[in-house]
Amino acid sequence: MVKVLLFANTDWYLYNFRRSLALALRDAGYDVLLVSPPGPYGERLQDLGFRWVAAPMERRSLNPLREAALVLWLKGLIQRERVDLVHGFTIKCAVYGSLASRLAGVAARVNAVAGMGYVFTSNDAKARVLRPVVRGLMRLALDGPQARLILQNPDDVALFNQAGLVDPSRIRLIMGSGVNCSRFAPGASRGQAGPLRVVLPARLLWDKGVAEYVEAARMLRAEKRDIVFLLAGDPDPGNPAAVPEADVRGWERDGLVQWLGHVDDMPGLFASVDAVILPSYREGLPKGLIEAGASGLPLVTTDVPGCREVVTNEIDGLLVPARDAEALARAIARLHDDPALRARLGAAARETALREFDERIVIERTIGVYEEVLGAAARETALREFDERIV
Q1: What's the confidence (pLDDT) of residue 389?
Q2: Torsion of CA 274, 279, 282, 286, to 10 degrees
Q3: Of 89, 112, 111, 115, whose CA–CA distance to 102 is shortest?
Q4: Which of 81, 122, 290, 344 has a Cα-to-Cα distance from 283 of 20 to 30 A?
């Protein structure tokens, strides 16, 4: 039995973004081991019958001794568990998982980098200092004849090719982590009944465009528009770009936003709003936008890598420049003024989600990458078992 280790920087990521992949792999006969730092979602993964191991990992750590100890811990785990393939998600897990795999003598490595992360998107001093170091580690860790790098949008593919971090023949483009579109359905049109309700569903990070969203709310409030601005998500203390909770509480006190915190019931949330807003600076491929599109909602997002792969301007949503609160406010105002536009964009967004981003497409292509590095022929079995389970 082939053993696959899936390694991510949070248990929440494994549960929310890779649970379906893990289930499909198990149904296909793979032995699946899940690894992440400790957290409340580890127990949920275990309740699904998976083996989950808590890694001694601190996401914000820059201590070289601590980081080296983590790589050696991973190496020992891979050897003890006799792992055949390691699949790392996000830059840090991809690099550390690959280094540990090489030390453990495991050649089959798959890495998925969803967006370029804080080090590549931020312009603060720490990010600029870390950038060349991370580039060097990526070049060392991610390449190899039995290694594949999965990227989620063409801009990231071009960036990696230009940087020469990985042999271009070993890069695979798979659009996102997939969405179970059957869980999301269009709700009843609210038309002009009540205020327009919009939501930004994401971790509360500055690079998700939270500041621009709040400023757009401030502008439209000054125009006396009847719009409710919701924030769905929590700050991420493991990310240097996390929005302080005190700032969010202040916006609430000023009447600019309503903060929902973490939301488990995303279908229910999307059924309660009229539009979804994501003014991000850069993405891999934003799952929240795809879920919202599957729910038949109009989308407003930025014309940046990852987001523009989900939304085509004026077809299934509206694109605005990044870091431009005024343009964002004007796009939201258009949706407020024009219910027919909302309906047209939402219907097209659902068609796009069903056609391009259903999770079965992503799982099929991911298992195909596993076949490349393992020489296994499990794709048809995995898809058949997965289809039987979700029907």
Answers
A1: 60
A2: -10
A3: 111
A4: 344
How far apart, in whole angstroms, are the C-alpha atoms of residue 230 and residue 136? 40
Opening angle at CA 76, ends 75 and 78, nearest 5: 65
Tell me the C-alpha distance between 367 and 365, whole Å.
6
Residues for the chain: how many in total? 391
Task: Return the closest-CA partner of residue 93 out of 133, 37, 158.
Answer: 37
Mean pLDDT by 10 residues, the chain (391 residues): 95 94 95 97 97 91 87 98 96 92 94 71 73 78 89 88 86 91 77 84 96 98 97 90 96 98 95 97 92 97 95 97 98 97 97 93 94 66 54 54
Closest-CA residue to 97 (of 144, 161, 154): 144
Model pTM score: 0.79
Element (H, E) at 179: none
User: Measured between alpha carbons, how far is 356 from 349 in angstroms, rounded to an integer?
Assistant: 11
> Where do the H-state alpha helices sit in 280-378?
287-294, 325-337, 339-356, 359-374
